[in-house]
Write a structure and sequence with these properties.
Layout: E1 5-8, H1 15-22, E2 29-32, E3 50-53, H2 61-68, E4 73-78, H3 81-89, H4 95-104, H5 113-132, E5 138-142, H6 146-156, H7 163-168
Parallel strand pairs: 1-3, 1-4, 2-3, 4-5
Helix pairs in contact: 3-5
């Protein structure tokens, strides 16, 4: 059976870890943000039997639906929204958090960073939920219960490979924000995520 799997998420919720787990699947290719810098229709030119984890896909849901519709399997990857918002707030000056504040919210001069990122998380989550409401092949994976949820996805897509190694990836924290250096006045022993 030919099938693509798309992992939709807000970001800051384990997409790199999910992609690392998928590297242990032998009957699918997989990747993390493999086509993120491509503009136009080629953005969604994923190979068949490929699993793609990319939080930016949430901004291409119309095209994703037109191209793959109900033929794909979709995973909604989530994490405690407050933790996601806090993680994005630490990155307010860069990436999607900055683009959301400055572009979508037109600066949001009255809103603090956490208000902006909580709104980002809520909006992207609502858009993904709306997109998935008519999709027959889908699953939810919560970072807090990722091993159990990933195993269910493994079965649902008839994955083959090393499940134990895949599950072990969820014990590794990926994409950790490095703490500020002590010279910059930061707290050197704090783990950022």
């Amino acid at each position: 059976m030919i099938m693509n799997v798309f992992v939709l998420c807000t970001g800051r919720c384990g997409s790199q870890t999910f992609a690392a787990a998928c590297r242990h699947i032998t009957n699918f290719t997989s990747g993390h943000e493999t086509r993120a810098s491509i503009c136009g229709p080629a953005r969604l030119d994923y190979p068949q039997n490929h699993i793609e984890a990319d939080n930016r896909l949430s901004w291409f849901l119309g095209d994703l639906d037109n191209r793959f519709g109900t033929d794909a399997f979709y995973v909604h990857l989530t994490r405690d929204p407050a933790k996601v918002a806090a993680s994005y707030a630490q990155r307010m000056g860069q990436g999607i958090a900055r683009a959301y504040r400055e572009g979508i919210l037109m600066g949001a001069p009255e809103a603090g960073p956490l208000s902006v990122t909580a709104d980002l998380v809520h909006t992207v989550t609502a858009n993904i939920q709306f997109f998935l409401k008519d999709k027959p092949r889908k699953a939810s994976v919560r970072l807090e219960t990722a091993k159990e949820d990933f195993e269910a996805v493994w079965r649902a897509i008839a994955a083959e490979g090393d499940l134990a190694a895949a599950l072990a990836e969820f014990d590794v924290v990926h994409d950790v924000k490095k703490p500020p250096s002590p010279r910059a006045g930061g707290t050197p022993n704090r783990l950022y995520r």
